Amino acid sequence: MKVASVVIVAAARNFLIATAKHGDIHLGGLEHRHIHHKGRALSTVENPYALNGKKAAIGKRTGHCQFPEDAGLVAVAGSSNGGWAMSPDECCEPGAFCPYACPPGELSMQWDPKATSYSYPQSMHGGLFCDDDGKIKKPFPNRPYCVKGTGNVGCRNKASSNVAICQTVLPGNEAMLIPTNVETLATLAIPGPEYWAGTAA
């Protein structure tokens, strides 16, 4: 199923490139598919959330929501993602959910409350919500950003240099973007059945 999704995305991308060369792009029926355009998913949401009664340290900057550097999260490197666990050329834009990386051994506990099953496009709605004013909202105000995984597993590196073990962004774009740097020994997070929609990331 994942291979089929990749093929569909690749075919759609080739279509967009081909039509762009002729100066005539028609997105029409593509807007509900798993396609990224201008650095963000075409599907957006309209979910206002409270931030647990306190202001976020992140404000509006050029129309994007900034990564919360004071929340104990791990910034993911990328040319335009601003630290969010998104593809390097994506940014956290108003009207979208923006996934983030937790410290090693921990899992994100924020996602769209309406995303209760593993189905598109709700499966893309992980992380914090970026509202129309460019401010971050916590979907579950009473939950922490991250929690320790159930049955954590250790990874020992016997190589001559560092090794990165990557975690899938789910809910999110399912890319393996959340790295754990293993110098000698590191803890990997194993999600329990209470994780989003009973899935494992």
Explain what you see:
This protein is mainly β and about 200 residues long. Helix content is about 10%, strand content about 20%. Strands 5-7-8 form a three-stranded antiparallel sheet, with no helix packed on it. The chain has a two-stranded antiparallel ribbon with strand order 1-2. It has a two-stranded antiparallel sheet with strand order 3-4. The radius of gyration is 18 Å and the shape is globular. The two termini are about 15 Å apart.
Which helices and strands occur, and which strands form pairs?
Layout: H1 2-21, E1 36-37, E2 40-41, E3 60-61, E4 64-65, E5 96-98, E6 106-108, E7 128-130, E8 136-137, E9 146-148, E10 153-156, E11 163-168, E12 176-182, E13 185-188
Antiparallel strand pairs: 1-2, 3-4, 5-7, 6-9, 7-8, 10-13, 11-12
Helical residues, percent: under 10%
Number of helices: 1
Distance between the termini: 17 Å
- Category by helix and strand content: mainly beta
Net shape: globular
* Mean pLDDT score: 74
Task: For the largest sheet, list the strands in their spatial order.
Answer: 5-7-8
Q: How many beta-strand elements? A: 13
- Integer-rounded radius of gyration: 18 Å
Give helix and strand order, one letter per element, not per position: HEEEEEEEEEEEEE
Instruction: Note the beta-strand portion.
Output: 15-25%
Q: Sheet bearing the most strands, described?
A: 3 strands, antiparallel
Are there runs of 5+ residues with pLDDT below 50, and where?
1-61
